[in-house]
Amino acid sequence: MNEPASVLVVGAGVVGTATARALQRAGHAVTLVDSAEPGRATSYGNAGFIAIDHVLPLARPSTLRRLPKMLMDRDGPLTVHLPSLPSLLPWMARFALAAYSAAEVKKGVDSFGTLMAEANIAWKAEIQASGLGELFRSKGALYVYESEESFASGADERELQKAKGTEFEVVDGNRARELAPGLSAHIVRGVYYPHGMHTTNPYRVVAALAERFAADGGTVVRGRVRGFGRDGNRVTSVQLTDSELPAKALVIAAGRASGELTRLLGFNAPLVAERGYHVMLAPDNVRFELPVSPAARGFFITPMEEGLRVAGTVELAAPHQPPSWHRADLLVRHLKDIFPGVGGAELSRWIGERPSLPDFRPAIGRAPRLANVYCGYGHQHVGLTLATATGRLIARQMEGEELPETLLACDPGRFG
Ligand SMILES: Cc1cc2nc3c(=O)[nH]c(=O)nc-3n(C[C@H](O)[C@H](O)[C@H](O)COP(=O)(O)OP(=O)(O)OC[C@H]3O[C@@H](n4cnc5c(N)ncnc54)[C@H](O)[C@@H]3O)c2cc1C
To answer: What is the DSSP string of 346-378?
Structure first.
């Protein structure tokens, strides 16, 4: 262990890599550690949407009310991997408590207001600073509805978006079909977000951030973190399989696996894998340029570099379970309902694990009872969106700045 101590960021997904960049810009010597190549886990295959319109966290009463119907439907937007059910019950109970509590829902709304405002600024700044412009498109985004009832069920969220200053336009089916040619005739409504932005390759975003990080003097180390050296309430090193790295400070950004590391440090991160799938299709007959989401079906259709990405839906599962590929088949069926005639041959399919805490708020900031450990995990459906904001917030806290009060709701110590 001869090298000088640096800030060690564990996890080179989009959150860890963006955090490493922010810390580097703040003047720290930073080492990014991952057991795999940067960007190959959940950050690889998401829908690519910078979802700053997402201001109403999923832990809320309306999600709970819809749960029984959703769970009865094997092809619905949410399902449970049944063999995992016993191990998921404690998480589900915590989720229900958070969703039923008006105080917890308010914390979610307030913290997401702050986080999304920060995300909006942070991505624009990072795209500029890291030269990522060719990987992003500002073409807006369109949510589409197959019935008036389904459109009406999003009224609360739209009210909140209006209050937070998010611009959108409610459109009829014909206007939706102009915005996204090929859309089925049965779509009755749309909500168009003119400022929506997406990436055409989420993996390349992480790879490019990691490359810039290394080019600007950051160190990238391949290795699985298995333990920590401690001196009282400070972490002094990180133990890999056959080496040890000295640590000035530590950031845990290991996605779904973060709980395994926090346990070693004496605090809880009750994360589950909210699994989602994607299918890449050759770009046949695609005449639209913006992400389209049939809101009630819980997925996105995003035009990307290689073709059309159909990504989303939720399958709650314990870690390390085999994929349920019928969920990927389902995505293709959904696509054919919403865009009959769009999309060519299947190019690839993928499964990813959204790292989700039961209150659906991420853990961002200083770890409990430890002087030099910070957290950035639990970003569930919006990790791409919140990655750069997370990095900036952690960098500011490391400089001694207090986080905004609304972000106390994202305190990593809240699960004990
Ligand atoms: C189908 C789907 C669609 C999505 N669409 C969107 C979207 O449109 N917009 C959006 O904002 N979000 C979206 N998301 C969510 C987003 O992809 C995730 O929130 C985000 O990728 C999480 O990033 P992360 O860096 O926390 O985790 P990961 O990308 O999983 O990275 C964690 C890293 O930690 C490493 N690691 C773990 N343990 C260790 C260890 N002990 N030692 C060393 N390294 C370790 C892993 O190898 C991995 O590289 C989607 C997710 C899915 C599944």
So the answer is: EEEEEEEEEEE-TTS--EEEEPTT-SSEEEEE-
Instruction: Give the tens place of pLDDT for each residue, 255-275.
Output: 999 999 999 999 999 999 999
Q: Which amino acid is at 406?
A: T
Distance CA 412, CA 130 (A): 29
Going by CA atoms, what residue is nearest to atom 18 of ligand 1? 383
Which residues, 6+ apart, have CB-to-CB distance to 102 below 8 Å?
none
Whether ligand 1 lies within 6 angstroms of the CB of 209 is answered as no
Sign of the alpha-carbon torsion through 352, 354, 355, 358 = negative
> In DSSP terms, which residues pair with 244 in a beta bridge?
239
Query: Whose CA is closest to atom 22 on ligand 1?
Result: 383
Give the Å distance between the CA of 181 and the centre of ligand 1: 32
Name the pTM for this structure: 0.97
What is the CA(312)–ligand 1 centre distance, in A?
14
- With a 6 Å cutoff on the Cβ, whether 53 touches ligand 1 is no
Q: What separation, in Å, do the N-terminal and C-terminal C-alpha atoms of the chain show?
A: 32
CA 15 / ligand 1 centre spacing (Å): 7
- Asked whether 6 lines ligand 1 (CB < 6 A), one says no
* pLDDT tens-digit series, residues 369-399: 999 999 999 999 999 999 999 999 999 999 9
- Taking the C-alpha atoms of residue 234 and residue 50, their distance in angstroms, rounded to an integer, is 35
- Domain annotation for the chain: domains and CATH numbers: 6-214+251-415 (3.30.9.10)
pLDDT over 80 at 74, yes or no? no
**pLDDT band of 62, cuts 50, 70, 90:** confident
What pLDDT is attached to residue 269?
Answer: 98
